[in-house]
Design a protein that fits this description.
Layout lengths: L20 E12 L2 E12 L3 E5 L6 H8 L7 E6 L2 E3 L25 H4 L1 H6 L30 E3 L4 E2 L5 H7 L1 E3 L12 H12 L4 H4 L4 H20 L15 H14 L4 E5 L7 H16 L3 E5 L3 H7 L2 E6 L2 E6 L1 H5 L2 H8 L3
Parallel strand pairs: 3-10, 3-11, 8-9, 9-10
Antiparallel strand pairs: 1-2, 1-4, 4-7, 5-6, 11-12
Helix pairs in contact: 5-7, 5-8, 7-8
Bound molecules: adenosine-5'-triphosphate.
InterPro entries: AAA+_ATPase, ABC_AA/LPS_Transport, ABC_transporter-like_ATP-bd, BCA_ABC_TP_C, P-loop_NTPase
GO molecular function: ATP binding; ATP hydrolysis activity
Keywords: ATP-binding, Nucleotide-binding, Transport
Length: 347
C-alpha cells in the first residue's frame, strides 16, 4: 500500500511560513435549557499541530467535540474547517478507482446529502461514490501549492462550516474522533472494527462489496489492506482476529484511534485517550500521537493528564464553566493563576 507522510516542506531559514489554520472556532455557544455548556468559545487550531483542551469536570470539553462532529447543534457560533487532502499519498488511503468529479450544489458547495452517502455505505447500501475528495475539489478551491502537481498537501483555500452538518458529513470532510467512553463494535474483530472506519471514506460499503465485480473486489481488498496497516500502526496487528470486547482497555483505546484514522482524517479529535491507561500505555500514547502528527494529521486532544499534555501539545486551551479562561503553551497555562484557581475551585 503506497502512502507517504504529508511531509511539511522544510522552509529555508528566515522564510518560515506563518502557521495555517485548520480549524477556527468563533463565538460557540451551546445551551441545554437553562444551562450554558459552552459560552462564546473561540479557538484556533493550526495545521499539523497538537492542540489540547483541558479543564475541570463539566467544563464543556466533550460538548465542544460534540458540536464539532455534528452530534450537537450549537445555538450560536461558527467552526471553520480547512479540509486537507494529499492527492494519491494520503495516509492510509484505500487504493480506490479514480474519483468522479463531485457534483456541486446550487452554491457550488457539496451538500450534506451527498456526503451522507458515506453513511449509507456504512449501513450496507451502495455508496454513490461521488463524494470522494469531498469539499476539496468543490468549485476548484484547491490551493495552488498543490493543485495539479499530484504531490503535497491540497488544502481548501476557503474553509467550510462544520456546524449544522451531520456526523457522517463531518467525517467525510476529514474530521474523525474517538470517545471518552469507548465505542467499538464489541462483537466484531479488531480488523473489522478498523474496516468500518476505512469504509467511511472508501467507496466500498458492505452491500456494494457483495457485488461480484472485479473493481469492487479490488476496493474491498484495499480496505482490508489499509485496515491491516492501521492495526500495525497502533501495535495491534497480532490481535486482528480477536473480538474488540475481549481486548484489554488500553488496546481498545488504540483500536478506536486506528478506526478513526481509517476515515483518513486531516483533523483527529481524541477524547481523553489516556483515561484508565497504565503508565506504560501513556508513554506509548505520547509516541503514537507524535507518529500521527508526523503524518500531517492535526490533533485536537481532550486530556486531564498534564504530563501527557505537556509532552504532546503545542498549545493548550483551558475551559472552565464553558468559557475559555486561558490559551498558551503547556508551561504558560500551568503557571496561569486563573487556571490554577479553576482547578482548585477558587477561579
Ligand atoms: N446532552 C446533554 N444534556 C444536558 N446537559 C448536558 C449534555 N451534554 C453536556 N451537558 C452538560 O454540559 C456541561 C458540560 O459537559 P461536558 O461533558 O461537555 O463537560 P466536560 O468538560 O467534557 O466534562 P468531563 O471532564 O467530566 O468529561 C455539563 O454541565 C453537562 O452536564
Amino acid at each position: 500500500m503506497g502512502w507517504a507522510p504529508d511531509a511539511p516542506t522544510v522552509p529555508s531559514p528566515g522564510s518560515v511560513p506563518p502557521p495555517r489554520p485548520i480549524l477556527d472556532v468563533a463565538g460557540l455557544t451551546l445551551r441545554f435549557g437553562g444551562l450554558t455548556s459552552l459560552d462564546d468559545v473561540s479557538l484556533r487550531h493550526h495545521r499539523g499541530s497538537v492542540l489540547a483542551v483541558i479543564g475541570p469536570n463539566g467544563a464543556g470539553k466533550t460538548s465542544l467535540f460534540n458540536c464539532l462532529t455534528g452530534a450537537y447543534r450549537p445555538r450560536r457560533g461558527s467552526a471553520h474547517f480547512w479540509p486537507t487532502h494529499v492527492r494519491g499519498v494520503t495516509p492510509w488511503a484505500p487504493a480506490a478507482a479514480p474519483a468522479r468529479r463531485p457534483r456541486a450544489g446550487p452554491a457550488g458547495r457539496r451538500t450534506d446529502a451527498a456526503t451522507d452517502a458515506a453513511g449509507e455505505a456504512m449501513d450496507g447500501q451502495a455508496a454513490r461514490g461521488e463524494a470522494e475528495d469531498g469539499e476539496i475539489e468543490d468549485g476548484g478551491i484547491v490551493e495552488d501549492e498543490a493543485a495539479g502537481r499530484g504531490a503535497g498537501p491540497a488544502v481548501a483555500r476557503r474553509p467550510v462550516e462544520l456546524f449544522g452538518r451531520s456526523p457522517h458529513a463531518v467525517a467525510r470532510l476529514g474530521v474523525a474522533r474517538t470517545f471518552q467512553n469507548i465505542r467499538l463494535f464489541g462483537d466484531l474483530t479488531a480488523l473489522d472494527n478498523v474496516r468500518v472506519g476505512v469504509e467511511v471514506r472508501a467507496r466500498v460499503g458492505a452491500g456494494r462489496a457483495l457485488l461480484p465485480l472485479p473493481r469492487v473486489r479490488r476496493e474491498a481488498a484495499a480496505v482490508t489492506s489499509t485496515a491491516w496497516e492501521l492495526l500495525d500502526f497502533v501495535g495491534l496487528a497480532d490481535r486482528a482476529g480477536q473480538p474488540a470486547a475481549g481486548l484489554p482497555y488500553g488496546a481498545q483505546r488504540r483500536l478506536e484511534i486506528a478506526r478513526a484514522l481509517g476515515t483518513r482524517p486531516s483533523l483527529l479529535l481524541l477524547d481523553e485517550p489516556a483515561a484508565g491507561a497504565t503508565a506504560a500505555e501513556r508513554r506509548d500514547l505520547v509516541d503514537l500521537i507524535g507518529q500521527i502528527r508526523a503524518r500531517g494529521i492535526s490533533v485536537l486532544l481532550i486530556e486531564h493528564d498534564m504530563r501527557l499534555v505537556s509532552a504532546v501539545a503545542d498549545t493548550v486551551v483551558v475551559l472552565a464553566f464553558g468559557k475559555v479562561i486561558a490559551t498558551g503553551t503547556p508551561a504558560e497555562v500551568r503557571a496561569d493563576p486563573a487556571v490554577i484557581g479553576a482547578y482548585l475551585g477558587t477561579g
